Amino acid sequence: MDDDARRRRAHTTVDAALDRLLAHDMAGFAALWAPDGTMTFPFAAPGSPRTLTGRDAVADYVAGYNDLLLPTAVVDEVRHTTGDPDTVVVEFGVHGTVVASGADYALHYVAVVTVGPDGITGYRDHWSPLEVQQVLGRTGLAEATR
């Protein structure tokens, strides 16, 4: 596969991930991972996982996402290509509803996504535990990010 095709595959996979997030299809979101792909959280709150390894681990982690948050829009999306045609950096915001309170929310992310022939091989999720804590109205960072 040439470099242009690999870049298209990476961007198409990011499109699918964001579409599934908005469709509240977290099982479908996790299904985009390669069987041994990873999801890492460089800024994870104490007590929260820093690395998930494998599609099943990602599926378990995101399974309860929509019990907390219901995303309705991806906003301010900017993509950056890298020297690696399999990797794209995506800056974006997500707006939606907090399930427990019905309040609107806005969260911001920077994701470094690497895609191989079997799906996402690496997803570095740079998000703010403090922002999540504020959105969910929780006092403990570990509690807010589980």
TrEMBL record:
<dbReference type="InterPro" id="IPR037401">
    <property type="entry name" value="SnoaL-like"/>
</dbReference>
<protein>
    <submittedName>
        <fullName>Ketosteroid isomerase-like protein</fullName>
    </submittedName>
</protein>
<dbReference type="InterPro" id="IPR032710">
    <property type="entry name" value="NTF2-like_dom_sf"/>
</dbReference>
<dbReference type="Pfam" id="PF12680">
    <property type="entry name" value="SnoaL_2"/>
</dbReference>
<feature type="domain" description="SnoaL-like">
    <location>
        <begin position="14"/>
        <end position="119"/>
    </location>
</feature>
